[in-house]
Amino acid sequence: MICHKHKCIFIHIPSCAGTSIEEAIVGFDWFKKDWSTKHLKSHQAKILYSKYWDDYFKFALVRNPWSRTVSLAKNPTHGVYVDHYKKCIDFNRDVQIPDDILYDHPKCKPSNWLKQSQGFELFYADQKKDLYIKQPIKNSIYLNYLLEDLDFVGRVENLQEDWLFISEKIKTKAQLKRLQSTKDENYTHYTEYYDDETMQMVAKKYEKDIEYFGYKFRE
């Protein structure tokens, strides 16, 4: 996402509160403006927004990988199966994706989370030949979105404080929509969805990210 009014470029890593950020800054979900650039990696954004890259404030958000993986299941296109009744996650089960969800982007239909790219997630901008794909870092998701240096990388776990910093930098008084809280009556902590096997599956896929950002299964 790019916003000329606030002179910023946002690298939207999926399931990291990004849509709330977009709505606060530009007033709508970026998908409605240009779905193909909603989840640009930083090296792609640098090419697409080269005219503004050096002058605009560039930022992203990351999230505890185990928490994020449960959140990915909210959108079936990510291919993560979660049983909310049994409170479990199953990476070996294919997710059935309704055809109407894919009416705009049929090229990006995953089977399940484990069968996706070993390097990083593939999204619509990856189909654009003029936005070249850098060699991915293995066992990483976040670092592959952040192959170019940004001005700030915040954390969903520290969202309110980090948003205050971002909003000061881009000179906006907009407020974020309320996100689900651990105090909510129906909230289930992400750790309850895992057993030892599935916990290690996530740890392996995000190994470099976990090391770089210092994440732990139980924060």
Verbal overview:
- 28% of the residues lie in helices and 10% in strands.
- The protein is of the alpha/beta class and 219 residues long.
- It has one domain.
- It has a four-stranded mixed beta sheet, with helices on one face.
- A hairpin with a 4-residue loop joins strand 1 and strand 2.
- The chain is globular and about 45 Å long.
Number of distinct beta strands? 6
Distance between the ends: 30 Å
- Main β-sheet description: 4 strands, mixed
Individual helix count:
8
Helix residue percentage: 25-40%
**Based on helices, strands and strand pairing, what is the structural class?**
alpha/beta
Q: For the residues shown, what is the average pLDDT? A: 86
- Rg: 17 Å
Strand content: 5-15%
Number of domains: 1
State the strand order across the main sheet: 1-2-3-6
State the low-pLDDT regions, or none.
none
**Helix and strand string, N-terminal first?**
EEHHHEHEEHEHHH
Please, what is the oligomeric state? single chain
- Overall spatial form: globular
Topology of helices and strands:
Blueprint: E1 2-3, E2 8-11, H1 18-26, H2 31-34, H3 42-48, E3 57-62, H4 65-72, E4 81-83, E5 88-90, H5 142-145, E6 152-155, H6 159-170, H7 196-205, H8 207-213
Parallel strand pairs: 2-3, 3-6
Antiparallel strand pairs: 1-2, 4-5
Keywords:
single chain, alpha/beta, 219 residues, four-stranded mixed sheet, two-stranded antiparallel sheet, 10% strand
Gist?
The chain has helices spanning 18-26, 31-34, 42-48, 65-72, 142-145, 159-170, 196-205, 207-213, and strands spanning 2-3, 8-11, 57-62, 81-83, 88-90, 152-155. With 219 residues, the chain is of the alpha/beta class.
